[in-house]
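ERR on first pass: missing label on line 2. Operator R.T. fixed the label and resubmitted. Corrected input:
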Amino acid sequence: NAGVTQTPKFQVLKTGQSMTLQCAQDMNHEYMSWYRQDPGMGLRLIHYSVGAGITDQGEVPNGYNVSRSTTEDFPLRLLSAAPSQTSVYFCASTQQETQYFGPGTRLLVL
Amino acid sequence: GENVEQHPSTLSVQEGDSAVIKCTYSDSASNYFPWYKQELGKRPQLIIDIRSNVGEKKDQRIAVTLNKTAKHFSLHITETQPEDSAVYFCAASQGSARQLTFGSGTQLTVLP
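pass 2 clean. output:
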């Protein structure tokens, strides 16, 4: 039981490049979410999904897309990276109300 | 939407003393209040949570209190130890929605 896994651990992008942050969980949780963490601002919700085929926007969705084709996977896509997207990204899956976070992806956009 | 404010942003205590971190929330419909601990470079980990039908909850050296009328909740750590040093986040959600709104965090430093 690996819990919530994220890849890559660290990524450097140039402005305008695209990439996908991967997130997977093996706990059969229906609810998954993506957060970004910036210094002094806590964690902010980007997108979430209540089950396969269903996604919705959180507090800061602009510049990000998500899809949920399976219960296990919830990738986050940056279509055209901007320096303002430099952050640490955490994926989480939820059982009842308890959220379990992945190890995070540190993204630097130059 | 929900707004969660957390104070203080930094807190230093001597080993063995108590530490208190306070949060206020804006949405009276919120009914689930977790606290997370995040060590440097690591993921946030749940340390304790409380639901709105309970006023206080304890787990060894950690306790959380909730005042629904005033819309604030607090984390209390007693007999602090150096390994308690970390960033602590409070959060709030309407339980069925499961969308957490986080406070901005408190850097706790326990001095030996």
